[in-house]
Amino acid sequence: MKTVYFDHAATTPLDDRVLEAMLPYLKNNYGNANSPHHLGQKSKVVIEDAREKVADLIGAEPSEIVFTSGGTESDNAVIKGVLAVSGDKYEVVTSELEHHAVLHTVEMEKMHGVKPVFAKAKNCGTITADAVREVVNENTALVTLMHVNNEIGTINPLSEIAEVCSELDIPFHSDTVQSLGKMPLNVKDLGIDFLSGSAHKIYGPKGTGIMYIKNGARWIPWMIGGSQERRRRGGTLNVPGIVGFAKALELAIEEMDENLNHYKNLRSLLLKELNQNLDFKFQVNGPDEKGVPHIINLSFSDDQENYIDGEMLLLNLDIEGICVSNGSACTSGAVEPSHVLNGIGMEAGLANSSIRISFGKQNTEEDVHYFVEKLNKVLNRMFTVA
Length: 386
Fold this sequence. Notes:
The protein has helices at residues 16-26, 38-58, 71-83, 100-108, 129-135, 158-167, 187-190, 228-231, 239-254, 256-277, 310-319, 339-343, 348-352, 365-385; strands spanning 4-5, 65-68, 91-94, 115-118, 140-144, 172-175, 194-198, 209-213, 281-285, 295-301, 322-323, 329-331, 334-336, 355-358. By secondary structure, the protein is of the alpha/beta class.
């Protein structure tokens, strides 16, 4: 059976060139980077080389890069590390559309007196600088807003939000898991204080991420237990993963224009095919044109405005060899709409019928044709049964 993988916002396959860079540190050069002997020092050198490369690629200083286990750890570490030194400031400004690595972390901090404050999203999912300005005040300890939304592809104007934060001397963190390596990103130009990134979204290894911590930013380490990363993140360093991260980011930035054009072409073709060949109504959730091209969120209905179950649609597409995702979450046995689609005001039935398609560099036009053909077949079957 043919397999079409349209879930690259969840994870990407490891690039062969990244694997090649990692292999020596998985096999022969296995030293602990904190060991004083020659094998350990060899690992330490390649880690510092990777740190310099990553820093250069995002416009940072090497001293501002901390390697972690991924985006979730980085989000946790930034939020908890800033709050630990925030004094009598107790509010965290975020949005209802954030990844759960941010939302759940902020929620857990309520037991320590932290108050979540939500900037209002536009119906396309954008959080504007004005929306942030409306809710920040003298009690704001941190603003944390993602760069690109992982479910609908909205791009937030980070540099404009950063200006608001800078005016009021408020630290600003951004989860850039869906933008790092996929669109231009320079921390100095954006004016942000903290950044989280992940390797496995850009054809790198799972279990490796970064924090960018601007020199001089007030923050203390969250993960302790060793002197690694200049005492900013305890734990034995993942040498092959770090090497892989640096190589993956280097390749992603080198090939960014080519990949962006490829995703734009696939997105345009998909919408054309849906308009011409789908027997049912569909709706793009989120931005039509101003979002990232590699993520598109769709909902479906028939002429009587009946909706299908997005979870069942996902499973039926999987039977046809097509891998997509949706944003629904199963809570106490009940499927609930995506918190992101809820946050932009979508009606529950329409939100529950949604799926997310996220393109990768290995997807083809043939994949799009195959997807639309099978989607039409599955929808006809599901609406007939309903």
